[in-house]
């Protein structure tokens, strides 16, 4: 950001801001950005395209001689992926000042029982709980926010359209479930005397799929991405099982109904298998977000001006924009990605498509800056 | 072993032998021993009781003035548990000269793709493949082998009997299964386009239980002790799943029928879920072992001489004795353990019961030494 001429600051949780002052610097700025963290074994486009793309858009505007009225800011959000603490969008949640978020962070531990505060301290972020209030921005702190991102779905590529403009972001719910049984030696404990936490977990993973498929809508998706057994040895009956489940929909009520059914199944399975349902935690259950009309419009005009075909679409993936929507009108620009693959090593977006996306972003920022 | 006055040697794979020379040193020795390795989060009695117990038995015989005719040897077997390479009883398999075992070891890798040979080298055991032939003992190398061990089941405790004498060891089969799908983002990939390796694994774990219960015998047990998902993130559809399955029975044919059914289910599930069944490996499928009559008899006489009630029983857990049975008549002495718990941190056997077991072992060794 510095080499692009931006003045850089960082907040207490690790969000990084790079600012290009406009001539009307006292008015609310226009922001653009995304994240650069990734889940294990993921690709290098998810998030990164939106951070480097925003820096590049500003670099191009600057070198073209453009003079912004409203200031332009690049935001690199911290910890968008829920990799370590099961909490997605740490940075943007904090910026949006989510109610009760400090309490959530205080309880958050990783699989090694390291608390969020300890981990933050190790990384050089001290007193992150105490300073979190200061991280939160007021509603209206920005005039608009726009995020460039790969689609993470197959639609744009399939339809041969280079630009997607997002009008709404689907609502994700994240669950953590723990079962506990007696374990024991795989040879010595006869079947009737077992209460196998691993088999309870297997049943619950299949129940998630069943309830999602029963929702009646293609837009409902559910995934058991984490299923860990303890002690995890071939000759030991699983004594503990830990699941992390993600359920999403563009319809909040329909999604919450699935969450409720999963919870009922979790209890039933525990009773049938005589294991303890130690935990059933709804880590988050965020409402969906709708884009700001004026931001969508600016992006649509930018695409048209560039002669790039665009499609208005819904984002089923989780983004920092979901939280930025709480404090400012937002929109997202999607570019196609290979087969819709994401969160995989072979995630890929072509240079041509990324360049197209950056151009749309640059023109959108310019237009919004003058508004 | 040294402080008990034994002369100690180690073989190329890490089995450790401590010898007390008898007056008829040229005749085959009597051996006793077990292992001291453990699975993660296990107790401190499984195996350890049989190693320390054998040393103590010899110490007591020596201090009582007993003069052995046949030499007495304590064996501490290496790597009885299949923790790292999914291969149980590495040390005793090697001693028993299992056919094809070198080839199995050459293919063995741990979850970090470290080969057995590399791991052995790191631990100071060089050229373990090359030297494995020398580790193998000839049939008849020992006159008898007897292993003291906690029961790892609830029978002795429940019935209030201090000593179990094992007449047969159940036959274990170990399977490794890998499923592979396309993975993808948990939000973006709609349900009909998924092939979730984790759900395939969940179905297979439940199928193992189903086939085991359908065997018609209480003696059939099956466990999916390992189920790992990759990449293992809440917002990522599992692209790979790795299972390790243990199936045991005292009836070899009935067990092998369950293994076959599990294999059929593994294929069916792969087809239904459009995932690849990358691997279905039968890591081992060992035949059961029967104790040597003369060794059982010596143990029974020892228990009677001590006024300790005993019970002839079957071992459903895997032991080094299973492999020692291939080269020498063997038997096992069981002592009760708390609630039958094993492979858990709260595994426990009382001092009184262990002392009883060691006494039976000492008298059995004395009797066999004079035979
Ligand atoms: Mn992501
Ligand atoms: Mn992202
Ligand atoms: Mn064991
Ligand atoms: Mn053992």
Characterize the structure shown.
The structure is a homodimer of 371-residue chains. In chain A, the strands form 2 sheets. In chain A, strands 1, 2, 3, 4, 5, 6, 11, 12 and 13 form a 9-stranded mixed sheet that branches. Chain A has a 4-stranded antiparallel sheet with strand order 8-9-7-10, covered by helices on one side. The first copy, chain A, is elongated. In chain A, helix 1 crosses helix 11 and helix 9 (293-305) packs across helix 11 (351-369). The first copy, chain A, has 2 domains: 2-170 and 288-369, Aminopeptidase; 172-285, Alpha-Beta Plaits (2-Layer Sandwich), CATH 3.30.70. In chain A, helix 1 links the parallel strand 3 (29-35) and strand 4 (72-77). Chain A has helices spanning 48-63, 90-95, 101-107, 116-122, 128-135, 155-159, 197-213, 252-273, 293-305, 320-324, 351-369, and strands at 7-10, 16-20, 29-35, 72-77, 142-150, 163-169, 171-180, 221-230, 240-249, 276-285, 289-290, 310-315, 330-335. The first copy, chain A, is of the alpha/beta class and 371 residues long. The model of chain A has no long low-confidence stretch (mean pLDDT 94). Chain A contains 11 helices and 13 strands. At the A-B interface, helix 7, strand 8 and strand 9 of A face helix 7, strand 8 and strand 9 of B. Bound molecules: manganese (II) ion (4 copies). One manganese (II) ion is lined by residues 35, 46-47, 80, 149, 319 of chain A. One manganese (II) ion (MN) is lined by residues 46, 81, 343 of chain A.
């Amino acid at each position: 950001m510095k080499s692009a001429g931006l003045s850089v600051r960082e907040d207490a949780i690790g969000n990084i801001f790079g600012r290009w002052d406009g001539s009307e610097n006292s008015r609310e700025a226009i922001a653009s950005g995304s994240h650069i963290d990734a889940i294990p074994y993921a690709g290098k486009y998810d998030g990164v395209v939106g951070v480097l793309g925003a820096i590049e858009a500003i670099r191009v505007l600057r070198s073209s001689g453009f003079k912004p009225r409203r200031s332009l800011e690049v935001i690199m959000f911290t910890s968008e992926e829920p990799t370590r603490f099961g909490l997605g969008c740490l940075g943007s949640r904090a910026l949006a000042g989510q109610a009760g978020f400090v309490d959530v962070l205080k309880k958050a531990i990783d699989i090694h029982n390291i608390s969020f505060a300890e981990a933050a301290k190790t990384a050089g972020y001290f007193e992150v709980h105490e300073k979190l209030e200061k991280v939160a921005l007021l509603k209206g702190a920005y005039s608009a926010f726009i995020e460039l991102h790969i689609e993470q779905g197959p639609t744009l590529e399939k339809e041969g359209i280079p630009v997607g403009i997002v009008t709404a972001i689907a609502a994700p719910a994240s669950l953590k479930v723990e079962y506990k049984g007696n374990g024991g030696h795989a040879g010595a404990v006869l079947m009737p005397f077992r209460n196998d936490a691993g088999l309870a977990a297997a049943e619950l993973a299949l129940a998630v799929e069943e309830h999602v498929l029963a929702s009646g809508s293609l837009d409902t998706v559910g995934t058991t991405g984490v299923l860990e057994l303890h002690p995890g040895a071939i000759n030991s009956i699983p004594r503990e099982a830990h699941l992390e489940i993600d359920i999403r929909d563009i319809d909040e009520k329909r999604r919450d109904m699935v969450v409720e059914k999963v919870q009922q199944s979790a209890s039933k399975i525990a009773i049938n298998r005589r294991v303890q349902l130690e935990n059933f935690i709804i880590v988050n259950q965020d409402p969906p977000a709708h884009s700001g009309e004026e931001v969508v419009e600016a992006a649509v005009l930018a695409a048209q001006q560039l002669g790039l075909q665009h499609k208005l679409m819904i984002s089923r993936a989780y983004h920092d924009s979901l939280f930025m929507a709480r404090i400012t009108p937002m929109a997202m620009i999607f570019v196609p990605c290979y087969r819709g693959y994401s969160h995989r090593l072979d995630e890929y977006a072509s240079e041509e498509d990324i360049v197209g996306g950056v151009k749309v972003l640059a023109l959108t920022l310019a237009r919004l800056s003058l508004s």
